[in-house]
Amino acid sequence: MRVADFHYELPPDLVAQTPAPERDASRLLIVRRKTAALEHRHFRDLPAYLREGDVLVLNDSRVIRARLRGVKSGSGGQLEILLAEEEAPNVWWVMLRPGKRVRAGTPIELVGPQGQPAGVSAVVLRKNPDGLCRLSFAGAENILSRLDTIGEVPLPPYIVRDAPPIDTDDGTRYQTVFAATPGSIAAPTAGLHFTDGLLAEIRQRGVQVVCVTLHVGLGTFAPVKADRVEDHRMHEERYELSPATARIVAAAKADGRRVIAVGTTATRVLEHVAALNAGRMVPGQGKTRLFIHPPATFRVVDALVTNFHLPESTLLMLVSAFAAPGETRGRELIRDAYAEAVRLRYRFFSYGDAMLIL
Fold first, then answer.
1. What is the DSSP string of 214-230?
2. How far apart are CA 331 and CA 325, in angstroms?
3. 316: part of which helix (H) or strand (E)?
4. What is residue 197's three-state secondary structure?
5. 3-class secondary structure, 17
6. Which residue ranges make up each domain of the chain?
7. What CA–CA distance (Å, rounded) separates 6 from 294?
């Protein structure tokens, strides 16, 4: 399959720059796989589509303030640093912007959000073929302990903020209300629509709400550079499936009850574990580079809550696969659903509206 098959046109003004005034006020597009029927609701209507015995699976990873600012020692050139993957304490693979002219050995002095010296330095150890730089930090026992004071919310580049950003609201809204385990450098955005009240209502309907953890990294949002879908290689991302969640999901599958994944990240954890263990839910932790695209099949997930995703992204490919498991026609179903969303001016991407695929 061609990556270009997953392209679509999106008016720039439909890229959501701010969240909805209330989390559950976002719109919700219902997509029925068997009939291709579409329904237009709001996210607070989600409980009406759930039933007693369902299992709703959330990703409880917490976003860290992974965007840092620095200046090159000597030249004073300004750099933006996005932490991508921890290799060891104070040793990280990062994305640098601008990074083309940065060479191994370049020293960097970090500054806080308002430009004040942070007392932390870094040196570029090397660059890899993907354009990432390996940095070693000094001046802090662990750079993670300083992120709350010198880091910024790692909003995606299509959300435009002043520099330095005033991100008080982003610090709250670019985080799910159930976030628990720090480690993501981007939000698991399907979960952003939930409120504590909505989750309480869902539980009152007899739905079991459980969590997995997948720390969102480059595997989720790195662009696909290959021409053929099958040639793309995902970056690894860390996950954990707890014994309690494994037991509850396994029982639901044995009883024929629905498992509803909130987001592509929760989906990938469940399907990775199932693929690794002949369909069984075995608790544990590790790394996954599972790439789900048409004509993939699904062993665990029966319904999917998701946002509207970037053209030609791995997320859009996963959603297209879920729209018609084992076939390729899911591309057309999702393409038509997205076209309808554009026509009705749904809001797209991280702070945008949501979709429920049944």
1. E---HHHHSPP-SSBGG
2. 11
3. helix 314-323
4. helix
5. coil
6. 3-63+172-357, 67-152
7. 11
Measure the N-to-C terminal CA separation of the chain; round to a whole number of Å: 25
Instruction: Specify the DSSP class assigned to residue 10.
Output: -
Q: Do residues 220 and 315 touch, judged by C-beta distance below 8 A? A: yes
From CA 209, how far away is CA 316, in angstroms rounded?
A: 25
Listed in order, strand segments (DSSP E) in the chain are 27-31, 38-42, 55-59, 61-63, 67-72, 78-88, 91-97, 107-111, 117-127, 133-138, 181-184, 208-214, 237-241, 259-262, 284-288, 303-307, 354-357
Contact 355/322 with Cβ under 8 angstroms?
no
**Counting runs of H as helices and runs of E as strands, what totals does the chain give?**
8, 17
Q: Is the peptide bond before 325 cis (omega within 30 degrees of 0)?
A: no
Amino acid letter, residue 312: E
Q: Which CATH superfamily is domain 3-63+172-357 in?
A: QueA-like (3.40.1780.10)
Q: Tokens standing for 263? A: 């987001």
From residue 23, how far is each of 27, 110, 154, 191 by CA, in Å?
Answer: 10, 34, 19, 10
The class that CATH gives domain 67-152 is: mainly beta
Token couple for 191: 């979960």
Given a contact cutoff of 8 angstroms between Cβ atoms, the answer to whether 199 and 178 are in contact is: yes
Angle subtended at Cα 318 by Cα 216 and Cα 357, rounded to the nearest 5 degrees: 105
Backbone angles phi, psi at 128, to 5 degrees: -110, 170
* pLDDT by position in tens, the chain (length 358): 999 999 999 999 999 999 999 999 999 999 999 999 999 999 999 999 999 999 999 999 999 999 999 999 877 889 999 999 999 999 999 999 988 778 899 999 999 888 889 999 999 999 988 889 999 999 999 999 999 999 999 999 999 987 655 546 899 999 999 999 999 999 999 999 999 999 999 999 999 999 999 999 988 888 899 999 999 999 999 999 999 999 999 999 999 999 999 999 999 999 999 999 999 999 999 999 999 999 999 999 999 999 999 999 999 999 999 999 999 999 999 999 999 999 999 999 999 999 999 9
Alpha carbon distance 304, 319 (integer Å): 8
d(CA 250, CA 57) in angstroms, rounded, equals: 12
Domains 3-63+172-357 and 67-152 agree in fold: no
